[in-house]
Amino acid sequence: MDPNTAFAIKAASISDVPTLAKISSDSFLEDRHTQMKSQGENPYDLEQSMAAYLPRQIASPTSVLLKAVDESTGEIVGWISWGFRGFSPAEIAGPDPDATALISNEVESQKPAEEEKRVQASQEQQAKSEPGPVDDSPIKQLERITDADLRRWMDKVMPEGTRCMFVVSLCVSPKWQGKGVGASLLHWGTRKADAAGVFIWVHSSEGAWRMYQKHGFETLETLDVDLDQYAPSLLLNNQGRTEKWGHYVFRYMKRSPQG
Ligand SMILES: CC(C)(COP(=O)(O)OP(=O)(O)OC[C@H]1O[C@@H](n2cnc3c(N)ncnc32)[C@H](O)[C@@H]1OP(=O)(O)O)[C@@H](O)C(=O)NCCC(=O)NCCS
């Protein structure tokens, strides 16, 4: 971590949603899968989709949404959404030396009663996708393939009765990347998982898997997608030339409890 950098990990609140959504789309600007999906007639808009999705995530009793804040300016520089399976709400809120008070005071009070009744599986399945009107474009076909594969993995890795944690989303503002923000957001959960003796899984983007590997995650499965099969046009590179999008590999990773 950069020794000159000081940031705090805090519970995110509903008023943070527009900023978190913007950080999400900024952080994925260089991600080829996201770039490809944002092409064509009905382009995928990550910022919009996150702005719609995050309030549900904040209200969910089985998730914890944390933000990293630059202590000198108050700027939000990154965030993570942790999913929990087989934990009680009290266990999810603590015990944790850094975030217990924040989570129990801020997040818990924002949970409307009806959210408590939400079925956990449906919340988790919505984690990566938004149901929309029927659209059979190649990009939508790809979305259905990646969503179905994620559901298959989830059924396999956490069948009924499993107690575990998972990373739903993690992103760091581009100018803050490489300064230890992602590691700190991840560390909150790895400590919690180790204390509870549970594994963590993540569906990793192509840019993040090495970081997860450094934090004890192992790749168990991959989904290799030939982006050119679904792309509406070739990729326009920084030199103004067109080239193929190439393959994109999603990695299903798992970290066993340690310590
Ligand atoms: C992936 C991401 C969250 C990492 O956050 P970050 O704040 O830049 O990461 P950190 O500075 O905390 O780095 C943590 C460790 O991972 C390593 N690391 C981070 N990105 C890496 C990369 N692309 N390749 C190799 N190692 C990497 C760092 O060297 C560091 O290792 P160290 O602790 O041994 O020094 C950030 O780059 C990001 O937002 N990427 C785009 C969105 C994304 O793909 N999110 C993941 C969704 S699953």
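^ coenzyme A complex. Residues 97-125 have pLDDT under 50 and may be disordered. The domain at 7-255 is CATH 3.40.630.30 (Aminopeptidase).
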